[in-house]
Design brief:
CATH topology of the largest domain: Rossmann fold
CATH architecture of the largest domain: 3-Layer(aba) Sandwich
Number of domains: 2
Radius of gyration: 19 Å
């Protein structure tokens, strides 16, 4: 294991300390163990607070999207491990502006258990909580079993759209509806070329041959749909795109936003090669690509690979996607 760290067991806390030192005008840590972060100006009175969280190792997900126009607070667990209920409760209390809270996070059992407990704790403090789970990974369960799917990079769009709606001082029900609309129209699929190493474990999360790739692998190393020899970027892009087109029933005249996401160790140049093919294929079907995003939006430490996320747009989603946002890891004017 070669990593630029000190004590592996201090990695997360030192990372958090570094981030708030770098962005003191945007973020601050709260709670006794400093494993909850909120926007520096929290709480925003009268605004629905959007709370998220999950294991470390995925920056910018989750805390990288805490800021104006996106999330208001986040709880931070150890690498690839859920934060606990107290940490999410601390974030909720600090971000509560009196209009209720939307818990928006990935569909993972540990998170559901701990955030469910945090929601109960918040309700006891008269903070109304609604929950929306991101489950956009088409490779993790078939059609008809969407509730079993993992949340991956598609949560970026949920933060963006729900955050824009909350900034308009919409009600909790309206902000929740916006997040649900996003996720109903968003699908993702990824692929991996190499594993990553959790600092505290000191060994790769999985093994894969130098000449192999795995289609559909999850961001924690969960099994994909197939493993095979490495193929050219165009073929990989086509394989990621086809099930998404089918599930979203995309057709000529539709408009979509495309996110080509790097998992941590894939050069941006390669991501643009993938985007080129995706754009060609969509354009050839008469589908407009609006506001594409290419880069690292949901990573897995130093895993090599990429994921494709597509959100089908309607006029309302397009309007909210255009709204400004400012976080340490994402800015849009």
């Amino acid at each position: 294991m070669k990593k630029l760290i000190n004590d592996p067991f201090a990695f997360v806390d030192e990372m958090l300390d570094g981030i708030v030192r770098a962005h003191p005008d945007q973020l601050r840590l709260v709670g006794p163990d400093k494993r909850a972060v909120v926007r520096a100006d929290a709480p925003v009175q009268g605004k629905v607070a959007i709370l998220t969280g999950g294991g470390s190792g995925h920056l910018p997900v989750f805390m990288g999207y805490v800021g104006k126009g996106m999330a208001d607070g986040c709880s931070i667990g150890n690498v690839f491990s859920s934060p606990n209920a107290d940490q999410m409760f601390e974030a909720t209390k600090a971000a509560n502006g009196g209009a209720g809270a939307l818990f928006l996070y990935g569909n993972y059992n540990g998170d559901k258990l701990n955030f469910g407990m945090a929601a109960e704790m918040a309700e006891m403090e008269d903070i109304k909580v609604e929950t929306v789970l991101a489950a956009d990974d088409v490779a993790s369960a078939p059609v008809g079993q969407e509730s079993k799917r993992r949340g991956v990079a598609g949560i970026f769009y949920a933060y963006k759209i729900a955050g824009a709606r909350a900034d308009e001082m919409a009600s909790l029900a309206e902000v929740k509806a916006a997040a649900e609309l996003v996720l109903a129209n968003t699908r993702s699929m990824g692929m991996a070329l190499s594993p990553c190493t959790i600092p505290a474990a000191g060994r790769p999360t999985f093994e894969i041959g130098d000449d192999e790739m795995e289609i559909g692998m999850g961001i924690h190393g969960e099994p994909g749909v197939r493993r095979g020899k490495l193929e050219p970027a165009d073929r990989v892009a086509d394989e990621l795109l086809q099930p998404i087109i089918a599930e979203l029933s995309l057709k000529s005249g539709d408009t979509v936003s495309v996110l080509v996401n790097g998992l941590g160790a894939t050069p941006k140049e390669e991501l643009y090669v993938v985007f080129r093919r995706i754009h060609q294929q969509l354009q050839g079907r008469g589908i407009e690509v609006y506001r594409p995003y290419v880069g690292e939006y949901a990573t897995s430490l130093e895993m090599a690979g990429a994921s494709l996320t597509i959100m089908k747009l309607n006029p309302e989603l397009r309007r909210l996607l255009d709204a400004p946002a400012s976080t340490p890891f994402f800015a849009q004017q």
